[in-house]
Amino acid sequence: MFRTAELGRTVSKEEFERLADPLRIELLDLQQKLLSADFPVIVLFAGVDKAGKGESINLITEWLDPRWIVTRAYGPPSDEERERPEFWRYWRDLPAKGQVGLFLSSWYSRPFMERAIGTLDLPAFDEALERVTAFERTLADDGALILKFWMHLGKDAQRKRLKALEKDPLQSWRVTPTDWEHWHRYDSFIHAAERLIQRTSILPAQWHIVEGLDERYRSVTVLKALRDSIRRHLSQRAAVKAVATMPAVDVDEAAEPAAALTSGNPADQNVSEQVDAALLELEAGLPSVLQTLDMSLDLSKKDYERDLAVEQGRLALLARRARLAGVSTVLVFEGWDAAGKGGAIRRLTGALDARNFQVVPVAAPTDEEGAQHYLWRFWRHISRSGRFTIFDRSWYGRVLVERVEGYATHSEWHRAYTEIRDFEEQLIDHGMVVCKFWLHITPEEQFARFQAREAIAFKRWKLTAEDWRNREKWALYEEAVNEMVEQTSTSLLPWTLVEANHKRHARVKILRTVCEALEKRLGKEKDKDKSGHH
Amino acid sequence: MFRTAELGRTVSKEEFERLADPLRIELLDLQQKLLSADFPVIVLFAGVDKAGKGESINLITEWLDPRWIVTRAYGPPSDEERERPEFWRYWRDLPAKGQVGLFLSSWYSRPFMERAIGTLDLPAFDEALERVTAFERTLADDGALILKFWMHLGKDAQRKRLKALEKDPLQSWRVTPTDWEHWHRYDSFIHAAERLIQRTSILPAQWHIVEGLDERYRSVTVLKALRDSIRRHLSQRAAVKAVATMPAVDVDEAAEPAAALTSGNPADQNVSEQVDAALLELEAGLPSVLQTLDMSLDLSKKDYERDLAVEQGRLALLARRARLAGVSTVLVFEGWDAAGKGGAIRRLTGALDARNFQVVPVAAPTDEEGAQHYLWRFWRHISRSGRFTIFDRSWYGRVLVERVEGYATHSEWHRAYTEIRDFEEQLIDHGMVVCKFWLHITPEEQFARFQAREAIAFKRWKLTAEDWRNREKWALYEEAVNEMVEQTSTSLLPWTLVEANHKRHARVKILRTVCEALEKRLGKEKDKDKSGHH
To answer: Same domain for B127 and B227?
Structure first.
């Protein structure tokens, strides 16, 4: 989940300055529009210490008109507060319509801290998060715009940050013993954070995970999200008003932002376009999680044949044990066209008993499937215990092709992150093994493979016009993949990103990953047997 | 919560027959429209045994075109099902778009049963209900129409029903030992049911609580809800389509039903109007919870003065104890105009230390309040511990005046039931005492009091034109009160309905209720002190 927030993304001084002025002008303009809007903006910050929560708030307060901003932070409750229900102080502090409320700490702080240091057990933690989502839903239903930023730093990066601050005589006061205490608990913090984000990333109030290492990158990310969300929400409410003018249609059910409905005064447009351009250029320069892969990884033919044989043998044994233990395995294959999904799957199934697996190629839904919720067609293929179900493309199509091609609306594919987490959680809770693979190749490699396909007559059928068209959307897909990994890769359900420019390496890595997952799970199984209860 | 489902409401054979034909025609017509609609209808039944779950399903299947209906019931999971996540079988059985799915048992059955017989602890129960709401939200977000009926029978009524069936040689087979087992657990069943309904009555899928005693009344209630919801949902989706034709507006965000958008073919209209007329006439004859009150209750002047003195003294002592124990009290007063709220409140405050209470008269929101969520203005008045906060009118205005006068949209006031339950739950969880009073007077009594006010010059200011206008809306308000009690009266937070035609009786009853609530709470407090931890 935090892997995409440890890419070391930075923004140069020049890039930042090119963006700063127009962005600030647009934000001030949006804030003006807010004043007459019928909703408040609630922006809250949480995350790792020293990842830039306070700095971000200072920046926003500095850039915007402070008269319409309220900033909140909470210590331990005062006796005034202790004598009332916990949420009393949060209700009291809510920004009014047209205002922006910045929360340096919030309704998340207590449960998160208590969970991280272990004084709150899991059911109590979940219940607290339930109350939080109910609270945020109540506000969102009423029209509030809620923005949640999780500022992240890798464990090592945080240590460096603390050290650096300590060295700086002007900054050292900012490092408290508590900071180091927290750092030593880093892992349990992250563990609690993962659950918190999963449980509370509901559609009207999803978390933005921000890499906090580089101050300029951090600022751009926060300000961009702020700008995009306010623009979207303003036009959304405008659309709602338009809807409201339809006879007897209810105002409080939102319609999605209508570009056409955003105030189109040319001056604004001009600025927005400058911002868009600067952002586009800037983002083009930023690495996605895919660019962290070492695409040179390869295996010699000899090593490959040896490793392949070893892993396939290992898998065959594990599959038999899984069958006996009644442990099912679900494998998800996603990746670029021509990344070699089919070949990798064949190497897997080669090691499996044909009665013991099914490969589910996911194409356009059948009529029957089209008449159901999009998850229905995947639920139906979940196999009985002890079997392998291999999805060649999957439910992730919702947040990949359907997102990029516009087959799914913004809220449909946004919602999907939560729906997918919930779906996979049920598989895991049921004791299944779930592995998710993204096969990555470089555009150059894909191009080469397309040409090869054209050359080899008997493979030409594999090459469709679409394959060519999709290449143009590479950047959009890469963005979608990055967000998919951010939103759906957890310690329990990690994505395995496979360097697939060299098929031999890819195939062995996939086999090995599946074997390790099975061993881990069956190990548990054995322990269970030992400990008696099954 | 179930009080409104034990009113002994019945529908005569004649009334039913007058309604049957047009209603059936309209339902068949709606089912036709469904075939081309882009959503499924999910109707599920739960509740007390022998309250008519099966009969209702049979009736629907008989009245509608069975080709487009699927009926589901679940026993203990088959091995096929046990080997997959629990929800697999429910996903598999979902009706397709355009179809109606009738669920005789459902995703509620297992957690409910296990909770009722005590094998499932509360946190696990809540978690199971969480999964259920997530499931229903997923379907509703995708456009599904979800209808949930809780068929209710009073404990005694259920016993009679079972006895009667046993006597009937043709029916006796329907009574199993399990039925009697369940009956003996009636109270724990109801207790689990209350929590289940509270936790899962979310806006897109709220529970309809149906009094199951009289078969014809039951059938009318279910069929009416079915008809209204399908009509509403069809026009809602139509509105959404209309919205979709607006540039770049997202289809999947719903707009509320637009009467103007319901297919207005005169033939249909004609039938619908017949149904509306028959229903209106029929419902006018049905008692609301208010008509169960004995409005003749009164006290002699002598008894009144004695009781008043006693209860006020009692309250004074309890208030002091509460102050010491740090227990706060929240009193909510709602009722008809001129029902005597003010007088009753004065009798209460007369017994309280002026530094120890505040009376909050709720009128139109201030500018500041208008710029916030409607609950904000009530949260802000929650007092510190040990004090009394008395609301003269309250947050229930949302589901009373705002509903009836149309100040709140359908989904705003519908949503409010959940928001209010959540709000009051937080007060209770914090250890506060909460009493809610509805002061009821008959229209005749109100009329008399209005006239008296006009007569007595110094009281005339109290009588506004509005008072007269509201009388015309009596029936609408009565319906709203009935639903309010149904939705927000729980064993933890009961509504006290006060027979207020005679003020002396009303005032004493209110004082006594407050004293009893405080004694109950402070008793607990004492025990806590004894047991040491506070």
So the answer is: yes
